[in-house]
Amino acid sequence: AQTVTQSQPEMSVQEAETVTLSCTYDTSESDYYLFWYKQPPSRQMILVIRQEAYKQQNATENRFSVNFQKAAKSFSLKISDSQLGDAAMYFCAYRRSTGNQFYFGTGTSLTVIP
Amino acid sequence: DAGITQSPRHKVTETGTPVTLRCHQTENHRYMYWYRQDPGHGLRLIHYSYGVKDTDKGEVSDGYSVSRSKTEDFLLTLESATSSQTSVYFCAIGGGGSYNEQFFGPGTRLTVL
Fold first, then answer.
1. By three-state DSSP, how is residue A84 classified?
2. By CB distance 3.0 to 4.6 Å, which of A98, A111, B15, B105 could disulfide with B4?
3. What is the CATH number of the domain that holds B54?
4. Taking a C-beta distance cutoff of 8 angstroms, is the pair B6, B21 a contact?
5. Chain B residues with at least one Cβ partner in A under 8 Å
6. Which tens digits make up the pLDDT trace of B45-86?
7. What is the CATH number of domain A3-113?
8. Pairing mode, if any, of strands A19-21 and A24-26?
9. Which residues of chain A lie closer than 8 angstroms to B91, CB-CB?
């Protein structure tokens, strides 16, 4: 089974500052997808960003960007200009390109300090 | 937002009773999933479906069964609820074939007393 590890159960960041959330994964596949999901207190799971493993360029969505290091099997999420609304649980997820199952990390709880 | 609803949204039940949770989608996705979310464990896959009447087990399937008689509905049944099944349950769609990401329903909070 694939494993996804988020080693930071909790993180905090000052409003307007930058924070990086870590994620590592274990796989023997060469082609796969990686995702970051956000879960605010409303409990709704929201897709933040995704990365295809075959793409070398790091994905970016507005203030959210990733640092994808394929050889190191690392997929970190950078949040720039942090806002109060960014406070949430963040989950990293992996899916093989030919598979149906997603594998999630245990999550990182992000607090944004005004 | 993807059209995914879950019912009920909250339920309290007693140990030993059967419970059925419903997931309904209006997106005509082939793939549907049931997860449970527990502190310290993230989301763990219970069962998933890749078509009508086609289902498979996930990581934590013991004590759960599923059925999918129509594309739009995916039912999760706890045959005899236990306190260890107290959790938040999420339904998701997508992720198979050309669909990369999953879209999630709002979740159901189940408490087994």
1. helix
2. B105
3. 2.60.40.10
4. yes
5. 31, 33, 35, 40-45, 48, 50, 58-59, 88, 90, 92, 95-96, 100-104, 106-107
6. 999 999 999 999 998 999 999 999 999 999 999 999 999 999
7. 2.60.40.10
8. unpaired
9. none
